[in-house]
Amino acid sequence: MSLSIYKDSQFAQMFGVASAARSVIPKASYAFFALRDSMTIFASFNLPPLVAPMLSDEVEKVMGRASAAQIMAPAAIQIISTPLHLYGLDLYNRPGMTTWQRLRQVGRNWAGSTAARMGRIVPAFGFGGVINTGVRGRLMGGLEEADRR
């Protein structure tokens, strides 16, 4: 997670507003980035087993509940975590703005940014989680079988 937060601070400096390009990243921005990453990790690893039993029987017609939860949870949390990401970036890019001005800016950028973050998160934590669970299950099954011999 530390590398992700560091990466975001570097991207903010590289691609941020020119007037902010040489300034220091506010500590609050780091806190928002850390909270965003913590939420994504929680949704990717802890939520799917909790959410899967709550999914409709209709889901089973398309895919297993565990797989559906693994794909949906990391994507869904982006609805909440993306505004934190945007707010952290806004603290750096527009120093001196009021909270209300920042919230309006976050609102303007929320939908597109959320869709982009979902598109980035779903392959890694959604499909990647489903594949990882399957591979791990097969490997653990093979180890258990070898133990029985």
Description:
The protein is built from 5 helices and no strands. Helix 1 crosses helix 2, helix 2 runs antiparallel to helix 4 and helix 4 packs antiparallel against helix 5. The protein starts with a helix and ends with a helix.
Number of helices: 5
Helix coverage percent: over 70%
Fraction of residues in β-strands: under 5%
**Structure classification:** mainly alpha
- By DSSP, the count of extended strands is 0
Largest sheet: none
Cα-atom radius of gyration: 19 Å
Determine the N-to-C terminus distance: 41 Å
Overall pLDDT confidence: 87
Overall geometry comes to elongated
**N-to-C SSE series?**
HHHHH
Question: Could you list the spans in which at least 5 consecutive residues all have pLDDT below 50?
Answer: none
Can you lay out the helices and strands and say which pair or pack?
Layout: H1 2-15, H2 27-45, H3 47-51, H4 65-93, H5 99-148
Helix pairs in contact: 1-2, 2-4, 4-5
Question: Which tags fit this structure?
Answer:
mainly alpha, 149 residues, single chain
Describe what is shown at a glance.
This protein is mainly α and 149 residues long. The protein contains five helices and no strands.
